[in-house]
Specification:
19% of the residues lie in helices and 33% in strands. The protein is built from 12 helices and 37 strands. A 9-stranded mixed sheet has the order 29-30-32-31-33-34-35-36-37, sandwiched between helices. Strands 13, 14, 15, 16 and 17 form a 5-stranded antiparallel sheet that branches. It has a 4-stranded antiparallel sheet with strand order 1-2-3-4, with no helix packed on it.
Length: 658
């Protein structure tokens, strides 16, 4: 037996006594998800599978057994839904095969109500621009059916479905409305890649911006809504500071008052009074999410919930009278559950468990860690270890184990703490899993974001390398058995890892990752065009010769011949962000240079794999690929590909079972 085979056997043997969690239990449809209470408190709703596809259900709040299915999606899951403010209908969005042209649909709560599309236009993406606490039968919606680059604002009558044009948009990236559904601000990018914010008076946009940011503050500064009476405008603002703080502006005088700040994290979500719109509580997430109450009653409610719920929790839905909340609870080593919280009776009633089949399975704890980069930044990170590897629970295995570096997308996004099905899946297969908030990640202040400008294969990648070296130095990772894996930017990072630093990684799994940043920027969706200056400033500008050469220099496509380790690529054919050509061209380059690659293509998916059959199929290929490369265990492929639309144009021979 070869040394590699011996190592592979020992890695798989390490978790042999731990039950293998089936892929279906981790990546299949949840039993229930996205629970909500209607604003009037008379109904509860949720998403659940029907004919294998996630649909919307509801029941009377006082009789959850009287269930009614409200939608009839049969091909692709409904990604999100919400209650109309008047509680008379449910609204949801859907696209076609992952093209992200989301249209808005409605179904009334009356018996026999039919689903109808409220934005019945081709090649169109609808978005909600404004809700109201007092005008409950109307919404402001943006629709880009006239010019794909810009969303015209319409008033939508939820009773009749009628759309009335409010503002024809030929230049603006976004808008802010007040509770009267009156547009108050128009926002666009400026020449620096920052944001210009123009006030709107009587439907006319001011010629000059009243507020503006440069590039540095563009992702951390913006309006956060009005109070119901329009007297106060909230801001999340990092100008003159690092982290985004919460301010209240007196609209009449322009005076601002600091409401909340955090030294290590941007202010995140807020909870607001259901009638007045005043902020009652806020959160900030550095390593873990902190809940801070401004309203003393909220403070008491949070304390009461904290005593009764293990792990982390949050509020996912509230009634208009604010007497009933729907609370999610992440026990961290058990599946997430939702509870109905009656604030008058002070009772907590379980509503559902998302994945009851995971109860009692060997889910592993996540460890929050701070990792130092080579130039002194602190990288908030999250580590999960395989079962049986860490008997004393200190976050370091008793011997180094194979590791998967799991890189988040964006890159202007972040990893967080809590139940993570990919972490649990890979840990169960025998790997340590490390997720790193590298520079450029959001939530940690503008300095951390801006440290990633034009560093896509530079210091952003150095951060990932530093995290791998940390894991090796700590005795966590076997340095010869580290895989890199991720989607979108994480897919790009995977390609960078195998082209720029092929000696570091044993293999890579790239999911919808761009291989050529020049062609990526040339093919962005048209509705991203109002934001393109920020991409050019943070990545590189393809409109200049210098910028084009720079983008080519940091694109893995031009180094495809340097790949020496196994690579698995997954791609959706309808991806509007990272076109199929991004994967096609690096696969072609590798085949031309005689470099082995396995390519899995889904004709009915976009930016990621949203049909469970497809997600399960790709992960089945991925875990068997990883088992061959770094020696963990894998559930056999079986006939999982037959239930999916997966096509494998090349590289079947490189994955066991294909």
């Amino acid at each position: 037996m070869t040394d590699a085979a011996t190592a592979a056997t020992s890695a798989a043997d390490r978790v042999a006594d731990t039950p293998l969690i089936p892929r279906d239990h981790l990546f299949g449809n949840p039993t229930r998800a996205q629970g909500k209470i209607s604003p009037d408190g008379k109904w509860v709703s949720w998403m659940a599978p029907w004919e294998g596809v996630m649909n919307v259900f509801m029941a009377p709040a006082d009789d959850e057994s009287a269930v009614r299915r409200m939608t009839s999606a049969k091909d692709r899951p409904i990604p999100a839904y919400f209650w109309a403010p008047d509680s008379q209908s449910l609204l949801y969005i859907r696209d076609k095969d992952g093209d992200e042209n989301y249209l808005l649909y409605q179904v009334g709560i009356g018996e026999g109500s039919e689903e109808k599309c409220l934005t019945p236009f081709d090649e169109t993406r609808a978005q909600v621009v404004g809700f109201s606490n007092t005008i409950k039968d109307r919404l402001l919606v943006g629709i880009n059916n006239r010019d794909a680059r810009f969303h015209d604002v319409h008033m939508l009558d939820l009773k009749t479905g009628e759309l009335e044009l409010v503002f024809e948009n030929n230049e603006w990236a976004g808008f802010e409305a007040d509770d009267s559904l009156t547009l108050r601000w128009a926002v666009r990018q400026n020449a620096e890649g920052g944001t210009d914010m123009h006030e709107i008076t009587d439907g006319k946009v001011a010629d000059e911006p009243r507020e503006r940011t440069g590039l540095d503050d563009a992702l951390t500064t913006g309006m956060a809504g009005y109070t119901t009476d329009g007297a106060t405008l909230y801001w999340l603002d990092s100008r003159g500071r690092n982290t985004a703080a919460l301010f209240a502006e007196d609209v009449a005088t322009g005076e601002r008052t600091l409401i909340a700040e955090h030294d290590k994290a941007d202010i995140g979500a807020t909870m607001r009074h259901k009638q007045t719109g005043e902020i009652q509580a806020w959160t900030a997430t550095y390593l873990r999410t902190e809940h801070h109450a401004i309203d003393p009653d909220f403070g008491e409610a949070f304390a009461w919930l904290r005593e009764r719920l293990e792990g982390d929790f949050g509020v996912q839905s509230r009634t208009d009278d604010d007497r009933r909340w729907l609370v999610w609870n992440d026990p961290l080593t058990a599946p997430i559950a939702s509870y109905l919280f009656d604030r008058d009776a002070m009772t907590l009633t379980k509503f559902y468990t998302t994945y009851p089949e995971l109860e009692g399975t060997p889910l592993q704890p996540m460890h929050a860690r701070e990792i130092a980069s080579r130039d002194g930044l602190t990288l908030p990170s999250y580590l999960t270890l395989p079962p049986q590897s860490d008997p004393d629970g200190d976050g370091v295995p008793d011997a180094p184990v194979p590791m998967v570096l799991l890189v988040h997308g964006g890159p202007w996004a972040r990893d967080g703490y809590g139940y993570n099905r990919t972490h649990q899946w890979l840990a169960n297969r025998g790997y340590a899993v490390l997720s790193v908030n590298f520079r450029g990640s959001t939530g940690f202040g503008k300095d951390f974001i801006n440290a990633g400008n034009r560093e896509w294969s530079g210091k952003m990648h150095d951060d990932l390398l530093d995290a791998v070296q940390w894991a090796v130095d700590q005795g966590i990772a076997d340095k010869d058995k580290v895989a890199i894996m991720g989607g979108s930017y994480g897919g790009y990072a995977t390609l960078v890892g195998l082209t720029f630093t092929p000696e570091t990684f044993a293999c890579g799994v790239d999911i919808v990752g761009p291989s050529n940043l020049e062609t990526l920027l040339d093919t962005i969706p048209p509705y991203w065009e109002p934001l393109v200056k920020q991409f050019h400033e943070r990545m590189g500008d393809p409109s200049t010769e210098e910028g084009k050469k720079f983008l080519q220099s940091i694109s893995p496509l031009y180094r495809a011949k340097d790949i020496t380790k196994p690579l698995l690529i997954g791609q959706g054919a309808n991806d509007p962000r990272v076109k199929q050509a991004e994967s096609d061209q690096i696969v072609e380059a590798m085949e031309r240079d005689g470099v082995p690659v396995t390519y899995v293509l889904f004709p009915d998916e976009g930016h990621g794999f949203h049909r469970p059959e497809n997600n399960i199929a790709f992960n089945a290929v991925a875990e068997n690929f990883l088992a061959e490369c770094i020696g963990g265990r894998a559930e056999p492929l079986g006939n999982v590909l037959d239930a999916s639309t997966a096509q494998i144009p090349t590289g079947k021979e490189h994955v066991k079972g294909l």
